[in-house]
Every structure is written in structure tokens, then in C-alpha cells.
Amino acid sequence: MTYTGTSRLADFARGLGALTLFACLLVGFPIGMYKMMGSPIPDRMPSWEEVRITLMRPDDDGQFFIAVLTLIGWGAWLLFVLTSIIEAIRYLADCSTAILRGPIRPLQQLIRDLATMATLTFSTVASIANSASAAAQTHAATGVHAATDPEPNAPGRSTHGHETPAPEPTTSDWTPLLAAQTPPAQGSERPWRTHTIEHGDTLWDLAQRTYGSGVLYPKIFESSQRVDQPDGVPALTDPDDLYPGQRVRLPRLGEPGSTSSPSRTTSTDKAALSGPSQQQETSDAPAPAPPRSPSAKTTPSRVPTPVVAPPADHPVSPSPSTPSHQDDHRSPLAVTLPSGSRIGLGLAAALSAAVAATRLHRRRRRPINTDPTSYGSPAELPIPAPVLKARQAHMATYADHDAPLPSDGELAYEELLAEGPNSLVIGTCGDRPVSVPLPGLSLGLSGDGAHAAVRAIATELVPKARRYHAEIIIPQADAQVLFPGADIAGLSTALEGLIITPSLSSAIERLEAELLRRGRMLQADELPDVPALRVEDPGEPLPTMLLVAKVPEHGDAAVHALAALGRRYCIGALILGAWQAGTSLDLAADGTVTAAHGPDSDQFVQARLFHLTADDAAGMLQTIQTANGSEPDVSASPQAADTPSEPVPPSVTSLVPPPRRVAEGHRAPARLQVLGPVLLHTADGPIATGLRKGARHLLGYLALHPKGVTRDQAIGALWPDATPQSGVNRFNSATSSIRGVLRTATGLTEPRFLIHTAGRYRIDHDLVDVDLWQLTATLADAKRAVADEDADNRINALALVSDLYTGGFADDFEFAWAETYREHLRRTVVDALGHFVQLVKEDKPESALATLERAITLDLYTEPLYQEIMRLQARLGRSDAVQRTYRLLELRLDEIDAEPCEETSRLLADLRQPRPLSGRRPSKASE
């Protein structure tokens, strides 16, 4: 980030103030107490009789009260000193201490905050010294020519009309990949760059901005543990504990002397780089899990940090011996879709969050279905298969690191807190990402693969075109060429950052107006660029703007000027066709760069860019639109009739196994749990060890098919990318693991537990109970009771649903079929609980209310459930509870950037109105 003098001075002032306060509490307080109250040590110990008399006599002169205050004051100071010593020992010993409880906890937190802020005094001085040294070295080595600026008093130009050197970035700053500046001298590069931690930095974000993928954060942590830190700044010992002023090293992947190289990659590197498209076994050594929180525990002060781009000299071109691209199954940064589209993990993560947000918004407005014959039926468009494939690739990055899979709510909330993009990974070169900055981007793509590559870049940016993170401007004619058949107009209405202009000239006028507005703001605040303005005023909406358009062959002077000034004003240009004013790439149909021209052409030699087909892009844009709470017209859906979508989940009745051959009261020796994490149980408890990962996946898949599946069906669902022989080996290994573990745990050596008959494999339901089958059998009983018009049996069956549903189906599986059935089962259970409430609410309102409260724990965002709770609470005379329920709904919807609908607001207003008294006649006693 650009660390301005104002922010340095503010940090220094805060640190100096914290240091002064700490000194006053540690030294000044006891001196003042001694002057006013005297020594806390008595000259002699009082006798018991003196103590008794003192306590019994009236305190007319206030001496006893003053003595008590003195004792409390000295005790508090002594506690402060002891806690400070403990924290100092913790820091010197480089270990962590637990957070204390009770009244000591605020004191401990105060000491930690004061110590952290006091380090700003030393780290800021060190940062100023480093910046001054770097600036002196830079001015002595090279001169920098400022770009033509329309403002006479802009930074980089003197008031006398002579050009002056623009401020150079310090060693902690990144320079954009396509920046127009002199490259460093040959041989002067280090295999790493140094970054100074600022407010709000996390290792995950640094890895995302540096390499294009946050999962590579362990490389930064490993390289930075032995870095010498400035005075007063602790060493880096925990990837989640960062402090302002800490220095971290950002190694260049594949450089000599870095932590890895293309020709020699360790098992740890493979784990960190493992991508979702591999579908192969990785090292058994556990890799560190990615940070789950949106921001790490850094400082007491939270200041938004603008995302910075990779360095200009970041090497993405391979050595001459490096192949142009590798097979995607071994590429950790690319995902290949069935259509042939090739996308990056950045787009996969954006689509994963879009799927989560889509489901949450659909839950929010979905009415409760009380028809048992159609429990769980969705009324919306299915999610396209390419989107589900991309989501599965993203979720696999968590599974590869043995990290728990995030829920839809967690994904949507993390995306809500994400910062705006400043760089983008647009392809790969071997095993390394090809990253470009958005501010100052001046890139033209031509050739057979140009439209597909531009389509992939634009599609990845579209989800970020909200909440003032990014603004994409596309002329209408170019939008129709890039996204034929997609509802791009409806999407631009749903996203405030996607601008479709009538023509190229109107797009240029919009950019020029924004450039002048930002220029006036920079001049008024005396700041060098837009990133500095974002830091100075985080509340000012200043999204990164990108023009995506086809420019006439001879170019357009206005577009050239915008591209030249784009870095300072956070504006970029992505051109359809050859581009003489910047870097121009010719692409083959598969995205391979066949020719490169321009100032940064060397960066793209032998690279392969991501690319998208028009049909895949249409499905992705549809999901992005539904993620914002709007649903496209089903009849006018861009999804073709033959385009595959999410698989249809099995019906409830199909998951009921045939009757068991054993006695009714017989208990099976084993039990399979698939509601929640997949586990096997015996009478002695859960089986914690011995079961292979593939075996757990096979058990979960077989639980959805009580009548059995063929081996080819199981291999296609569990190992779709495996070769035929590898798939057979994995299936046989999983089957052997299941049988061996169950025989050892139960002591039964004869049973097979998995039955193979007529070419199909199924779970032996006489030996293994499955919790999912118990739940579906109960739902089937309720369905039969409706057909028999037996209300009592229906109520009795539905009453068991709440206890039998103990969790989502296989909630630790990332497969698309598992997610689809997980969502279907959740909808089914919520509908069943809602049906039960409708049946009993008149006679048993308390039971109905308890069931509804259970239902909203399963479905946090469904407004019809909250509406029914509010009605029952009002009926029971609990007006305060009605308001609390509405407030709870507001808080939960705020997590997905939504708010209660008008119907819920009107219901609250109606229920809060005073009700007329009952028409019942008063009793004789009252008369």
C-alpha cells in the first residue's frame, strides 16, 4: 500500500501515547499513591483486637474508607505489574498464554493492546528510515518520467512547469505488472521481496495478491520465520498473529534460491499447491489449514488496506526448457470443465460464493410446502453443471488441507467482507500463475482464443462488480459478442458495478468524467494516487474501473490517454483485438499465447490464458445474478434444454430399504452415520481409525442407493478423473477397507457387510443401520398417512423428524451430488417440520413454537418460518418476543447483505397493534 506521511505520523502518535500511558500506569501511579497515601507497608502488624475494634466502631472520620481505597489501589497496581511481567515473559519466551477470565481479562487485554500500540513508535521510525534509504538509492540509480497529467499541480510535476521525479515505492510496495516504468537492472533481483505488515494484512490476502491463490500462504510463512524484525516488533511465529511493522518475505515461485522450483518440488509444496482438478492422492502429511477468518488478529486498529498488485518484474515466463503448459490434472491453479473451458481458482471461488449466496436467497423467500408428496421440491432454475464443477474445485482446496468445509453462510459472509480486486490471475505458465494488475492494465487480445479469454477475465470480475469493489464498462455491441444468449441486461440491473453503455464513445465519456472527478479529489487532499485516497477516506466509493471493448484499428487517442493514466487513477483497459498502445497477445483456440508484442510481452511467453465458452459463461452469469437475490425469467432462461445442470436428487421413498430378514427388535452390529460427518459406529462407540478417505466417500454414496449401484457408477461419482484401471483399484481398495474395519470392530469375520449381487454393490441393511434410512422411512410413513387420511399417524410420524435429522447429509463431502442431496434433504426436513406445525398449532401452540425454533436452526434465513413464529408468539401474548424474533431475522439477513421483506415488516406492524378485548361475558366474580 502507499504509506503516506500522515498515516506514519498518526501511527507514531498513537504508539507514543500508548508508551506514555503504559509508563504512567507502571511508574507514575505508585509514585502518586506514595505521595498521597504513604507507604503501603505497615510499620507493624496490628493485633486481632485492634482489627476488631476498627471494624466495629463507626467510621466518622473516614479513615477506614481511605485505608480500604488505598489497599484496593495498591492491589490493582500490583496485579497490573504481575500481569505485565507475565506478558513480558510470554513475549521473550516466544510462547502464548491463555486469555484469563473474570475481572483480570480486561486488564490483560489492556496490557496487550498498549504493548502492541507502543511498538508503532519503533516500527514507524524504522519504516521511515527504510523508505528514506530506498528512495535515496532509487534516485541515485535511475530517473522516473512522470506520465502526462492534465492537472498542473498534480504530484510528479512542479509548479514551474518542469517535470520532477514521482515518488518511488518503498521495498514494501508492489509495482504493477504492466506499469510503464524502467525495469530493474539485470542481476540486481533477489529471489524474494520484502513486505512490511500494515493494518489489516493477513498472510492469506498477501498470497492471494502475490500468487493469485491464498492457499499458497504457507510459503510466505516459512520464508519469513527467520527474518530479522525492527526493534520492538516480535518475530513471526504464528501465521494468524501479525503485527504492524513486521517484515515478511514474499518468495518468487520457481526462482533459484526460493523455497521451491519447477524441477524440484517438495511434498509440502505439492500440498500447498494442490488444486481441485487433480483428483489424485497427495501426500499424507497434513498441510496447514487456510485461515478461516476474513482478517487475521493484527492490531487494535482496523484500517482497510488496498489490495496491491504483483511486482512488475515478477517472473511468469519459464525457462526455455519449460513446456508451454502442462496437463490440467497436474496444474494447481486451473480447473478444466467438461465443455473444454479452462478457468482459474479465482473464478472457481467466486462461483462457489455465488452458489452459496444463491441458495441462501432462495431459502429466504421459499414458502413452506405442506404437501408430503412434494417435500423439498425447488421452484427455481437448477444451478448449471459448469458452476457446480467450479464450486467442487474450490471446495476441494479445503479438503486437500484437511480443513472443515465452510457452510453457505460462512462463504457468503466471507465474500461480503472481501476487499476489492487490484490484480487478477488470467492464466498459467507451467505451474506458475500469470497475474496482471487492474489499475493501469493496458492489454489487447487477438486470435482464435481472444473472445474466450476476454470472456473468462470479464466473468471473473463480474461477481466483484458490487458494493463498489469494481466497475466493468462494456459497450452493448461488445457485450452481445462476448456473451451471446446471456441476460446481460438483467445482470447489469442487478449489479451496480456492471455498466453496459450504448457505444464506445459513451463508455469513454463515463471514464473521462470519473478520471476528472478523481483528479480533483486527489488535488484537494494532496495525495499521489487513488490507493492513497482509499486509505485516507475508506468510505469514499472508488472502485477499480476496467474498460472491456473493441477499439478501432488505428486506436483512439482518448483510450490511449486513459490507459496511460490508469495506474494512478485505478483505471484499466482490456481490448478486443491488437493493441499498439500497450501489450498485445495473439492467442490460439486453447488460450496458448502464440505471439506477444509490447513492453511486457516477455511476461507472457509460453503462457496459457484461461478461456470460457459462451454457454458456460451464460450459466455462470445466471448464477451470479441469482446470487444477488434476483431470479431470471424461467421461460427466457439462457440455459439450453440440453445443457446439463445439477443432478436430480433421489426421492424420499427410493431411500427406504426393503424389509429386513431378521427379527423386528434385532439391533444391527454396526451403524452408519451420514447425517453430519460420515462415521461408522458399533456398540462400543464410533470407529475413529482405520477407515480410508475413499471408503468413507463410498459409504456415503451407497447410503443414497439402498438398492445398490454398479462399480462404474460409483467410480464415475467418486473418482471421475481417474483412469479406468486407477478407478477400479480405488474402488476395490475402498471396499476392502470397509469390510476389514467392520470385521475388526464388530468381531464378526464371516459377514461381508457390502453385498455384491447381480453386478451391484449395496450396504447389507441387516448388519448396518443407516440414520438416513431411518429418517426417510419416517417421512415415507407420513406420506402414506396422508394417502390414508390418517391425521394422527401423520402427526406421530412428523413428530420424529426433528430428532432424527441430526445434521446435513455428509457435510464433510465436497462432491456435487452430495451437495445437491444435502440441500434437497434440508428443504424436505424444513417442509416436514412446517407441516407438523400446521397440524398441531391450534391444539398445541407451545409444541408448534418449539418445532419452529428448531426449524430456524436448520434454516437460518427462511422468512416464512420467522413469520409463523411471530404469529404464534403474538397469539400467546408475547409481544416482546415478537420484536426479538424480527430483530433476530434482521441480524441474520444482514450476514448475506439482505433485509426483511415488506410482508414481514407489515406483519410486525400488525402484530404490535393493540388487540380488541375478547367478547366473552365477564364472570360473576368480576361482576
What does this structure look like?
With 927 residues, this protein is of the alpha/beta class. It folds into 4 domains: 5-135, no CATH class; 317-626, Rossmann fold, CATH 3.40.50; 653-658 and 666-784, Arc Repressor Mutant, subunit A, CATH 1.10.10; 802-912, Serine Threonine Protein Phosphatase 5, Tetratricopeptide repeat. 45% of the residues lie in helices and 10% in strands. The chain contains 28 helices and 20 strands. It has a 7-stranded mixed beta sheet with strand order 9-8-10-11-7-12-13, sandwiched between helices. Residues 1-5, 130-189, 254-331, 635-643 and 917-927 have low confidence and may be disordered. Residues 258-268 have a biased composition (Low complexity). Residues 193-250 form the LysM domain.
- What CATH architecture of the largest domain would you give? 3-Layer(aba) Sandwich
Low-confidence stretches: 1-5, 130-189, 254-331, 635-643, 917-927
> What summary fits the major beta sheet?
7 strands, mixed
**What do the pLDDT scores average to?**
76
Alpha-carbon Rg, integer? 33 Å
Give the beta-strand count. Answer: 20
Task: Please give the CATH class of the largest domain.
Answer: Alpha Beta
Strand order of the largest sheet: 9-8-10-11-7-12-13
**How many helix segments?**
28
Q: Ends: how far apart?
A: 80 Å
Strand-pairing-aware structural class: alpha/beta
For this structure, the CATH topology of the largest domain is Rossmann fold
How many structural units, i.e. domains?
A: 4
